[in-house]
UniProtKB/TrEMBL annotation:
MF terms in GO: ATP binding; microtubule binding; microtubule motor activity
Coiled-coil ranges from the UniProt annotation: 529-584
GO biological process annotation, one example: microtubule-based movement
Biased composition (Basic and acidic residues): 490-503
Origin species: Brassica campestris (Field mustard)
Protein name (Swiss-Prot/TrEMBL): Kinesin-like protein
A Pfam family assignment: Kinesin
Binding-site positions, ATP: 79-86
Lineage of source species: Eukaryota, Viridiplantae, Streptophyta, Embryophyta, Tracheophyta
Length: 614
């Protein structure tokens, strides 16, 4: 059974610590006012809204009920630093054991579980400095966990510890153990600030007469957005803060796109791959999960900017539509299917070994993809006479590939390598510069800018592939000036914001409007270099994976060596580009984005096949 329903959003306003209050709540309505802005939510707790003690009962208990019906569910606490996320989730080490959502979830789960034949497992992860760590791992070396995506698009985590728990106390002890291991640190804003995003997952398997339900409840306590000048962060704390901010920026970007009905209907590419956080939350936002977001805010006037930002994104998240599906299997189905869904600790280890010995072979339909990409937009003209692709179609196609595009590029490169005439066909598309918003977002974490800079970059409205010629003819300064002028700089003060559907600009950008054009230009040039760095990083990672796979499998050595050589060639090419990258102009470097290259190959492959036949 499939259930399409919006993400539900609650706002939790933490108590005020002796300063002026900037939020009011409409009595008996889930409506919040801040300055002249008004937002509507599913629930509002605190500050004369519903009592915070009702958060579990109103927002989370229905998800636990759904978990027992076989639906995946997610509770996600979001908000600025010190707004009370950890307190609300009950993940902290300094709160009472019964405080917060997770202890109540445990109580509820173990009450319900008495009536059914079931098995419960838990895992606990953190994303710290853009790496995923297992908080329940017995090995103190803390090797990062690797994300894998199955052919069906399911995100799996290689080698993660999943422990079976029989009692509430068992589960509590794992929560406490992971919470102690989780990275925390003191800042000027929070004496015990979470320096990582934490995900506590309860996997439930219920065996019935004819079926087995296998569902997961994810309880997510995000690290809070922060400004270095307020937290006083430097050194290690500053580095952590940058990683936290860039992953939250990626999350906001995903929320903004998913929350925009027009973009959703157009099937715009969702940049889940930009950060580990969005990758992990892929199912929870716009996917197979029932999701509740709890936006934690401070009512203090000193926090008004961050609070307004949180309220805007939270409001936008209400437009996200999820499609939850009951996770069930027939009891007569082969048992490995269930093992695959909920591997135990030892099974998970075996699974990791299996992965190493058996390279992932994607199964997808090239014909259908090409059909999607080319015909309707280029029916009457020769394909190579005009751009035949649409950015969104292509990204859609890439996302359907389920594997990194870099390895596709290598495969296609091999295919094309033997024919010199074919390279001519690729040329026109190679030469078109592609300035894609998602590419820019991918590059942002490498820049190590402040969050303010990130926000401004996200607002640049970089031209899409639909106007490539305009972009290539512009100098960098023309480009940035053009885009700076397109910024919506004036804060909207009077309109009812819930109708804006995420069209408003975040407040942080206001400070940046007066920045010099050269600063933006410099940042933009840095971006292209950063893109190559990112690409190089991704390729190196793929290469390491391939080498690991080669070590474990004799039979596939030949094929893998071939893929490895292709990747090495690509890395070499990128290194050369990087070496000359700092002196290159953005239009030149961006034109060689490998996504464009892969795109060109995808687009022209059918033509070449056709010409071969002739
Ligand atoms: N509703 C509340 N009632 C009482 N105290 C609260 C409440 N919410 C938060 N606090 C207190 O505020 C402080 C900060 O809360 P918490 O650590 O949960 O914030 P956070 O949003 O998780 O911050 P960070 O993102 O930095 O980890 C803690 O000392 C906590 O006890």
């Amino acid at each position: 059974m499939k259930s399409t329903e919006p993400v539900r959003v609650a706002v939790n306003i933490r108590p005020l610590k002796g300063c002026t209050d900037c939020i009011t709540v409409t009595p008996d309505e889930p409506q919040v006012h801040i300055g002249s802005h008004t937002f509507m939510y599913d629930f509002v707790f605190g500050n004369a809204g519903l009592p915070s003690s009702q958060i579990y009962h109103r927002c989370v208990a229905p998800l636990v009920e759904d978990l027992f019906k076989g639906y995946n569910a997610t509770v996600l606490a979001y908000g600025q630093t010190a707004s009370g996320k950890t307190y609300t989730m009950g993940m902290g080490t300094n709160f009472g054991t019964s405080d917060g959502i997770i202890p109540k979830v445990m109580e509820d789960v173990f009450t319900r579980v008495e009536a059914v034949k079931s098995q419960i497992r838990v895992s606990f992860l953190e994303i710290y400095n853009e790496e995923i760590y297992d908080l329940l791992a017995s090995n103190p070396s803390r090797a990062p966990i690797i994300i894998r995506e199955t052919a069906s698009g399911e995100i799996t985590l290689q080698g993660v510890t999943e422990v079976e728990v029989k009692t509430r106390e068992d589960m509590s002890s794992y929560l406490a153990r992971g919470s102690f291991t989780r990275a925390t640190g003191s800042t000027n804003m929070n004496i015990q600030s979470s320096r990582s995003h934490a995900v506590f997952t309860i996997s439930l398997q219920i065996t019935r007469a004819e079926e087995i339900l296998c569902a997961k409840l994810r309880l997510v306590d995000l690290a809070g957005s922060e400004r270095a000048n307020r937290t006083g962060a430097d050194g290690m704390r500053l580095k952590e803060g940058r990683h936290i901010n860039s992953s939250l920026l990626a999350l906001r970007n995903v929320i903004t796109i998913l929350g925009d009905e027009r973009k959703r209907k157009k099937g715009v590419h969702i940049p889940y791959r930009v950060s580990k956080l969005t990758r992990l939350l892929q199912d929870s936002l716009g996917g197979n999960s029932k999701t509740v977001i709890i936006a934690c805010v401070s009512p203090a006037i000193s926090d008004v900017e961050e609070t307004l930002n949180t309220l805007r994104y939270a409001n936008c998240a209400r437009n996200i539509k999820n499609k939850a599906v009951v996770q069930k299997q027939k009891t007569s189905a082969p048992s490995f299917m269930f093992k695959e869904l909920t591997p135990s600790k030892s099974e998970a280890k075996n699974k990791a070994v299996v992965h190493e010995h058996k390279p992932y072979v994607p199964s997808f339909d090239y014909d259908a993809m090409f059909k999607e990409l080319t015909p309707s937009k280029s029916e009457s003209l020769p394909v190579y006479d005009k751009p035949v692709y649409d950015k969104e179609d292509v990204f859609q196609a890439f996302s359907e590939l389920k594997i990194p595009w870099t390895s596709q590029a290598a495969r296609f490169d091999d295919l094309f390598a033997s024919s010199s005439s074919r390279s001519e066909l690729r040329k026109p598309v190679y030469d078109k510069p592609v300035y894609d918003e998602d590419d820019v977002f991918e590059a942002i974490p490498e820049l190590q800018c402040d969050e303010d800079d990130f926000e401004a970059i996200s607002e640049l409205q970089i031209p899409s592939t639909s106007q490539p010629d305009d972009v290539s003819s512009s100098s960098p300064s023309e480009f940035t000036k053009h885009n700076t002028s397109s910024l919506d700089v004036s804060p909207k003060k009077t309109e009812s914001e819930q109708e804006d559907k995420c069209q408003n600009k975040p407040m942080e950008i206001i400070d940046l409007i007066d920045d010099e054009a050269e600063d933006q230009e410099k940042c933009f040039i840095d971006l292209t270099t950063a893109e190559y760095h990112l690409e190089l990083k991704e390729l190196n990672k793929r290469l390491e994976e391939k080498e690991a796979e080669i070590r474990g499998s004799d039979e596939e050595k030949v094929q893998l060596e071939k893929e490895k050589r292709a990747l090495q060639r690509e890395i070499e090419g990128l290194r050369q580009k990087l070496a000359s990258g700092s002196s290159a102009t953005p239009s030149c470097t961006c034109s060689k984005r490998s996504s464009c290259k892969t795109l060109s190959l995808l687009v022209f492959l059918p033509i070449i096949f056709d010409s071969d036949i002739e």
